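subagent[fold] <- orchestrator: predict structure for attached chain, return tokens only, no commentary.
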Amino acid sequence: MDKLQAILLGSPSLQGSHQAYRDLDVELRSQAEAVTKQLPETARALITAHPQEILEWLSPAQHTISYAAVLDVLVRPETTIDRAWLQNKVEAFLEGFDWIHIRFIGDALTRLLSRISVMGLFKPQRTIELLASTILRVDPTASVFTSSHLVLANHALTLGIVDPALPVLDRDITAYPPTTSVRGGRPLSDPSLSATIYISTFTGLTEPVKASMILDYGATLSQIYISRKDWQKAKASLEQVITHPSKDKGVVKAMTSAYRRWILVSLLEGGKSPLLPSYTPSTAKSHYVSQVPYNALANTFEASDPAQLQTELKTHEATYESDGTLALVQQVLQAYQKWQVINLRLSYLRISISRVREETFSGETGQRLPSTEAVDALLREMIEAGMLKARFELDEHGNETYLAFEEDTNTLSETEFAQEIARRHKAISDLTAQYKVVNERLSANKEYAKYVYREQKRQNDEGNQPIGFDASVEDEDLMSGILKAS
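subagent[fold] -> orchestrator:
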């Protein structure tokens, strides 16, 4: 026990200068080796036999590496340790670990997050909270995709507990982890190191990221946002899937499924047939043309032909049901008349309720609403939901009710304007920093360096048009971190 205690209490404390970070790297890496690869089986047996005594020696903040190693031994599905005690220790660790030291034993943290999500160690709400807060402690931007992002999203969707996960799920993914160290000689313990550098399979802060994981994450996010009727975010998540570059230039099943939902969500979000982003792979564009039941529905929706809309539904209802999209199609039909009402503002400043009834049709029946009272109820519902900016007015005789459209403007106060300027300035600064990191990573990539050299030579010697980097290196490789940096 004394020998084990000495190993676990080894706690490097160097900090400060750049050289000190290099020395700290050596000590932290040595400590991680001592409590993982070099830890004898007898020591592991002692940890299992005396968990409470051993963890009493350690502090999550001061002994992050040792604490993580001990929990890696203890937190297993087959454990018989007192549940309440283990909960307290895991919670204390996840809320108190040193965010620098954890980079040297990231694989233990990744396993811990995965295990608590499947073991039911905590109540569902608390599990989601811990997963999200831990991801943010490792990377406050949560913008570098990790396997833990997918664990969180899947768990939140399965449990139906989304709100605690949104601080992570709402963040834009701007980078994918490399498969090797790309620090360029900088110490791993340097606090100024970008998350795009220290989050990698090399540090263990993520499992290897495959294209299927990226597609699964986008699809899972879309399901979460669809359940919340957040059509804008659902559409953005689905676009990440349908535009994902494929290594063999093919289109996988997940992309096709996402496209079908993207069409429907786009109708709900914008009331018109969407255009594919310009960066959609050409093979995918060609494939999506074949999705006739959805493309036809979108075109009919935008053409304002209620009879044809009913025909499309009857013709393809079995397809929608087998695709698992029938419920979403029904929501599209429910929204059809609402978008007709919204589009009336393009022709009218003010329109009588009776005229609204004459000019709009229910997407569910293909008929006008049965009465002006039903139209009135629909309009009030839309106004209360914030979908329609309008007000009710009586004519000069007080006999007929009109719908008066309000100007769609957002006037900012001086304070709000200053806040918006500050927000955009920060966004530009963040983007500049991300561009610098990506440029450094590409510059260190042999394949990219060869591409740049070939392009320069071609332009100087042959005068040919550039063919584009994707002609020699697969886009999916770059996005998923498959290419190894030098």
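orchestrator: received. Logging for downstream: The chain has 23 helices and three strands. The two ends are 43 Å apart (CA to CA).
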